[in-house]
Amino acid sequence: MRSTALAPGRTAGSGPARVAIALAALVLALGTGASEPPAPLPFQEPGGLQRLFLQFPFEAPSVAAPGAFEGEVRLLYSNTILLASGPAASVDVDLETAQFTGFLRVGIATNVEVQVAVPFTVDYGGFLDPVIEAVEGLFHAANPARQGRPNGLTRFRVTYLGQSAWVDGSDAGLGDVWFGVKGLVLEPLGARPAIALRGAVKLPTGRYPFGSGEPDVGASLLVGWSVGRLAARVEVDGATATAALRAAGIGTRPYGALDLGLTYSATDALALHLQGSASTSPLRGTGLDEMDAGVRYLLLGLSARVSPTWELEFAMVENVFSPFRGADFTLLLGGRGRL
């Protein structure tokens, strides 16, 4: 008869049994908590010439309930330096930008909402240049465009085939307002994700260097999964400008963005965010990567529920995967809730 006694040093909870228990504990931990994690942090491309065109904030597929108003005020504070020249074009963008955006979502029907975004941008010399240079020196990753340049410059200069668009010195102005419609096309069920679609049009309400001077149109696919306290979201954007960049005569092309995000609700009031963003350029033909090539960012942040209807948001963003393009460093601050 085969003995059923346990071998010395082994217990009933060893081996596969321990793995099963650990996985069960993880599932129970993720499932603890009554509500779905909050939406991803609403990052969008803040630097360089891409900011002149339609850029969608990263969102969850969920929509506002019929008759509900959801508002948000956010600040993207970025430090950007782009310095390059070639046979056809040159670019010299060196500034810090505080881009404030008021964002409103209104539920107009079951699973349908309308959106409006109103940006206001301030460009000035700022204070982050020496901080960024110190950090780059610490990691031996200095941006050659910063070498020999004084701190605190404010420049937005672009030249293409002899046509120049220059703005020197601090400046502020309204950006391009955009309107959108978002609809939930598939509700989550078990392992099935939530899926939403969004379309939008940007109007030429902002002057250069705060707007492109032409309308843009775009659309998004938004997908989201959640298991208790953990949520994963994906957003795919596509857009096109309807004309060349008027200020500098640079040709445009269809462009897009991909956002990936994980949100974990550490407590009922505090959530942690890890996000990645990659976008292509709406410009073409300049021969300069600083203008024609895409940008990739990594975001680490948190959101905190300060009342039953309001949340605060904070994040740090780096162009770690595409150095020397886009914004070198960005801070995101925001507050959103139901009105």
Structural features, described:
The protein is built from three helices and 15 strands. It has one domain: Porin, CATH 2.40.160. The chain has helices at residues 16-31, 129-138, 289-292; strands at residues 69-85, 89-109, 112-124, 155-160, 163-168, 171-174, 178-186, 194-202, 216-227, 230-241, 255-265, 270-279, 295-305, 310-318, 327-338. With 339 residues, it is mainly β. Strands 1-2-3-7-8-9-10-11-12-13-14-15 form a twelve-stranded antiparallel beta barrel. The chain starts with 15 loop residues before the first helix and ends with a strand.
Query: Whole-number radius of gyration?
Result: 23 Å
Total count of helical runs of at least 4 residues: 3
Succession of helices and strands: HEEEHEEEEEEEEEHEEE
Give the strand line-up of the largest sheet.
1-2-3-7-8-9-10-11-12-13-14-15
CATH topology: Porin
The largest β sheet comes out as:
12 strands, antiparallel, barrel
Low-confidence stretches: 1-13, 22-34
CATH superfamily, please? monomeric porin ompg
Structural class: mainly beta
State the helical fraction. Answer: under 10%
SS strand fraction: over 45%
Shape: globular
What is the CATH class name? Mainly Beta
